[in-house]
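Researcher: Going back to the complex we discussed earlier. I've cleaned up the inputs and rechecked each line, so this should be the final set. Can you rerun the prediction on the complete assembly and write out the structure?
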Amino acid sequence: MVLSELDRGSVVPLYYQIRQHLLEQIRTGLLKPGQPIPSEQEISEQLSVSRMTARQAVKSLCDEGLVYSERGKGTFVSGIKQEKNVSQLLSFTQEMKAHGARVHSRILSLKAVSSDAGVSAALRLRPGEKVVRLKRVRLADSVPMGIETSYLPFERFANLLKTFNADTSLYQTLADQYGIHMHAADEAAEAGLVTAQDARLLGIRAGSPVFFFTRVSYLKSGRPIEFVRSIYRGDRFKIVNRLTHQSNLDSGWRRKYAQ
Amino acid sequence: MVLSELDRGSVVPLYYQIRQHLLEQIRTGLLKPGQPIPSEQEISEQLSVSRMTARQAVKSLCDEGLVYSERGKGTFVSGIKQEKNVSQLLSFTQEMKAHGARVHSRILSLKAVSSDAGVSAALRLRPGEKVVRLKRVRLADSVPMGIETSYLPFERFANLLKTFNADTSLYQTLADQYGIHMHAADEAAEAGLVTAQDARLLGIRAGSPVFFFTRVSYLKSGRPIEFVRSIYRGDRFKIVNRLTHQSNLDSGWRRKYAQ
DNA sequence: AAGTGGTCTAGACCACTCG
DNA sequence: GAGTGGTCTAGACCACTTG
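Model: Rerun complete. Updated structure for the full complex:
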């Protein structure tokens, strides 16, 4: 039997307990790719929860792509491994630490400047409106990986000029000092050649291949808070992406529609 | 009033009708970013559906990031625009057509070969096992954009050698001839410099910056079906990504946990 | 015919936010 | 205290798959 008991006094919702239990079975390989997980009926009966609760547990795993349901057949473990840190909003610090690297930064400059057209458009500011500009070299295990230039609205973040600390993550500072949490970001990457000046900062030869990134980060409300331009070494960096087929909401009635 | 009537005889589920109606209000700007959408209670009463059904409609929009819920306050329109074709599994053909370009390909070679280590690992084949290799130059509006080399297990796709047509999309062919639909893919991109030989095929100068991609595509079951290595022009290509904060399943009880 | 997931109902209690 | 979303129940009918 793959189902354990529930803690009905816990603050952790029942569906979440069930979900975590199934997750563990999958992670440990007790439930293998292609194998069916217990049906919603089974979960419901054996744990004495309503079917909707069992369903909610299964649905949450389904949404994350760990299992997939086939109408009339059952729900099966997907063989697609869960990549971590893929298409997730992570700071450079988080990302590098996840790879086990010691991270730090060197601040090249931190001051208030007028926004150029790109910055004011991205942050939805008036053209030329003041922004805080933070330019840093990012290092992993003391090796320069990239150069990041962040722009934030001066009006809201003027304090950063005094309080920002080179040893902390910008995201951490925004969370601690302003209670701000990024919800999403749009990132674009281009391939190009590094200039002589940037090459010196990165410790590579002029003309080496690099990534040029831009990123706009948003709050839940959709308000853009941070715009970043960065340059990362092509020899040290790789963009990894999990693409998914908008599995959406179909299975049943769409078929009828087509026929 | 923002809610319209439901078609209770339709094969389209009620929650989906509600969802689409709200979606339209958002898309047309009738519901603006930051504004609350009707509460689950309101939807439930005014459309005479159960609250769970109303909730399902709202939840689906929430999952896609179009709206966000705040406990005790309400559900609000997110100002984050829905990017299309971001982190979605699209073929080159789909992707380019979405940008309004006329697409075609030139086949450089199509034959059965032994898999090298990279290919056999990606497709989970025995080392050296035969694969179908399809090498194409991809053009948008007659401009060469990239060179793609696809590898598929020979055992299953030997027929492609005879039947594949330069004018169709590979994904389309897999769908039509084999009933195969990709469910997810892992893609990695590196920045590098193009070789003289590839430069000729792409119509650019040797040493120009390019993207090197690898991609493994999977079925729902997790079985890898296609491995692709490709080279795309750095001056014509941009990688666009929507990163999201794993909004997940929290809001309520996690807070208690922390306290 | 039996079992599965997809949808739906009509209630319920809770924690939370706001005025 | 009124309104909100988060969780949960105990049923129901349906379309679909498989034996």
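Model: Worth noting: The first strand of chain A starts at residue 67 and ends at 70.
Researcher: Good, that matches what I expected from the previous run.
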